[in-house]
Amino acid sequence: MLKSKDLLGIRDLEVSEIMSILELAKEMKAKIINASLREDTLKGRSMITLFYENSTRTKVSFNMAGLYQGAMVTDLGVATSSVQKGETLVDTGVTLDQMGIDFMVMRHSLSGAPHLLAKNVKASVINAGDGANEHPTQALLDFYTMLDKKGSFKDLNVTIVGDIAHSRVARSNVFGLKKLGANVTLAGCGTLASGTMEALGATVTHDLKAALKDADVVMGLRIQMERQKGGLFPNLREYSQIYGLDEEMFSLARPDAILMHPAPVNRGVELMPELLDSNVSVIDEQVMNGVAVRMAILALLNERRGK
Fold first, then answer.
1. End-to-end alpha carbon distance in the chain
2. 155 strand-pairing partners
3. Do residues 210 and 173 lie in contact, with contact meaning Cβ atoms separated by under 8 Å?
4. Residues forming the annotated binding site for carbamoyl phosphate?
5. Residue pLDDT, tens place only, 257-304
6. Which residues fall within 8 angstroms of residue 93, CB to CB, at 6 or more apart?
7. What is the Cα–Cα distance from 100 to 47, expressed in whole angstroms?
8. Of 2, 85, 199, 251, which one's alpha carbon is 20 to 30 angstroms from that of 34?
9. Per residue in 21-62, pLDDT tens?
10. Residues at the annotated binding site?
């Protein structure tokens, strides 16, 4: 069982809570594959998605995670809601709370926004990404994928390459992987991978070849142009020539290494097409694993809320 009514960040979770999600996700994945195994364990429960930023995978996978368990699922179309009239986040949350919503899944451009919402509503708030802070459910599906492919986190060498500075995915992965016993290396150009992340227990380097050596897992990250103010590197072409991953560069990792990415992928920028489409990639599997993990989170939060 989870200790909080909300799931706001990996930093807040204990190892036992992380593992309980991953263990239940295995059962949930079987239910995605085989529809006859599905049960309406969330029948009578309601879930709403509040996405103040664009999303495909996270938003749809949460919707499916609720529907596969019998929940009533709806979406607050932020662009057509009272938010456009100046309604505050807290007022929006309180309004939805009064409608009897059980789960609020929120993505916001401001770090800490889900935490503010959670303090002001009775509903369970799930952080689907807040600014450059955290993206806990993405990290949890990443953990599930790693555990499924590698069997253990102990001394697992995980290398994350790309726009570290603006990545909530990287932060959540570092928080969790260090708790779970893995070794984490962050690699990127100097303006996108600062040494401040070393305070979280990760190794930071600007040498891509050194970062890839002996890696069990290699995770690419998208260059987040929408969060940058410009001038962090000359242009995408030059960046891809130095830090783009291709088959030759990937061969520096261990022979059985896997390739991951939170997606969407900028083909030809952080990952070259021939590597992206090769058999080392588990990126498509991450999508299904994301639904399974989010099903598990909803189920465990529902248990925490009580019948």
1. 14
2. none
3. no
4. 57-58, 107, 135, 138, 263-264
5. 999 999 999 898 899 999 999 999 999 999 999 999 999 999 999 999
6. 104, 117, 120, 121, 123
7. 10
8. 2
9. 999 999 999 999 999 999 999 999 999 999 999 899 999 999
10. 57-58, 85, 107, 135, 138, 168, 222, 263-264
